[in-house]
Amino acid sequence: MNFDLHHVRLFSPCPRGLERALAEELAALGAKEIAPLEGGVAYGGDRAVCYRVNLSSRIASRVLWQIAEVAYRDEQDVYEAAYDVPWHAWFALQCKIRVNVAATRCPLKSLDYVTLRIKDAICDRFRAEQGERPDVDTRAPDVRIHAFLDARRLTLYLDTSGEPLFKRGLRTVTGEAPVRENLAAGILRLIGWTPDVPLLDPMCGSGTFLLEAAQIALNVPAGLRRSFAFEKLAFHDRGAWQRVRREAESRIRRTLPAPIHGADVDAAAVRAAAANLRSAGLSAAVRLTQADVLELAPPQPPGLLVTNPPYAMRLGERDALAAFYPRLGDALKARFAGWTAYLLTADLRLPQLIRLTPSRRIPLFNGALECRLFEFRIVKGKMRKK
Ligand SMILES: C[S@@+](CC[C@H](N)C(=O)[O-])C[C@H]1O[C@@H](n2cnc3c(N)ncnc32)[C@H](O)[C@@H]1O
Fold it and tell me: Quick check: CB of 56 below 6 Å from ligand 1?
């Protein structure tokens, strides 16, 4: 089969709320015809764009390569559309497969049955072409096939990423309730942080914001330490991939324009963040301390504070937090004048509890958990909520 590697339709899902931030990032990576949708961005490109987005996007969760799009009415149409794809030209019989189905407004009764029919069609087509069928492995597949159904159309994709891209192949120790890597990176872009601005996460946990910020500041590609599913697909060209990697690696910087600071009250969290930075080779980029945010002396000069404070749905008690938040508001007012603070939380009571007036509230999702990113411009005097 002749792959058209120059005109490829791609789709990248991302955390909801970050579609526009991802669209900007994709444009910088060479994508064309970029269309932000709910929960992801559709775009066009070529094989090199697919490689670059996998390697360097900090916000995309995956890069899906569109291989078919057809109208359907029933399960038989879905089966036939899937059978029509020359799967044997896309990947080898030895690859273990997994089929994922997602849908909005789909009239079919059971998505499990749709998944089964697509899997049957792939196996039947392989049997017809090569006399054997590939095995299914839902836990550690070599090739993931994604199907998306809306009311009338079925789109089939090959997943070129494999493990989701927010798994950077970096973090070794996770703390409690970590924020997803691509959400942290997306937030840093949303708030307009640039590496020349001092950054502080005073409740850093396992250090996700710090790791993402250090990689952004040093221009380290997000996927430098991991492998990708496209390495097992038939269109893969190792030479072309090495060129994309070398080009991205040549832009890695050695020094930071401004310091990145992290702190946590919990010694185990500080150890976890330190271990994660060390294993990523980023220890020198971040100044870590063990401290209570209520007593922390802010670094100078002021910059952006971004953090994901504990919240009751997942950590601690609601009452304890109801006592902590007003004190956090007081500490920010007393010592952080000149800073802009961004607090990501699933606890929508936060502005009331902290008793400060947010200048922005941005809806976001950490996995399935609905959150808000609250912006507080910290000035001395007059920002206190009655
Ligand atoms: C939701 S977790 C942060 C998770 C982090 N964003 C990550 O990705 O791993 C909240 C963190 O706040 C820390 N913390 C709670 N109270 C604190 C305080 N008074 N001062 C500093 N850190 C505190 C906890 O130890 C915990 O690590």
Answer: no
